[in-house]
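DEPOSITED CHAIN:
***
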Amino acid sequence: MPAAPARSLVHNEALGGALDLWGRFTGPDGCERAPGQWMPASGELIRGRLDRIRLDLLTIDARRFAVARTARHVARTAGTRHIVVVQLAGSSVLTPADGRPPVRLELGDVSYGDPTTCYRWEFSGAPTLLMLRTPLAALPLAPASLRPILGSPFAADEGHARLAVGFAREVLADAALLSGSSGPRAVQDAVGLFASMLADRLARAAPEDPTQPAFERAVDHIARHLAEPLTVAGIARENGMSPRYLQTIFARRGLSVSGWIRGRRLESARLALLDPAWAGIDIAQVAFAHGFADHSHFTRCFRAAFGETPSRWRGRAGS
């Protein structure tokens, strides 16, 4: 189902089962736990879910434990390309296995992480975490473009972070909203606020990029014309640049123009398939209205991005 149960109190095996895909857990004694046999602890997991997007609020009643994310876990969660963590209680230290410096998260810190990297994450002080995990297409930001803020914590109580974290916590606290028909859209709204937060943080943390105004003009043009035919030459012409320059400013951010257009069209179409206003419109028409000229091409792209067909996605949403 796109929207998970609003709230669940989980203990020991259930808590481990909910999180074992993410890493190998060890308890306060330092000994590993088998999958499902987590640790002498209880906790509460509130999860809002939209396909492969997961927004979690996790509270664990354990004073000390650790998570080791191995290559096996990375492979099992290969669809996750972005992760944002907010330390709402307790503290933690995440040590990447690739030699990068440890990341220390104190109370109220936000961190953007790399889910494709192995690490050891040690917790203390009965932590509470707000976590957002998304596939590549869910955020209009490429992991490569976010490298300047990777592993650099910032405060959750100011600017865009305050808005994003506050809204996400309110969504997860509202059981009726989260489990109702509008739950998936509320999760998507939270994702949008986190994207704005990361973009704002990146703008303040990264050195000034002279290509940024041109990139923003191109992205804005694409957003306003998603349902129309779009070409590199046409976008470049409408924004006063050469096609080669347009491709260059996307490439330096780890993106391609065509990939960006496809990702934004897919996200827009996926939300339309959840919208009651589009319930009576067949999928081919939804595809056409969001810039896809061919139903079968839309279906192939949708399955590649989200792991299922548009019809199955719409059917699960309706259920």
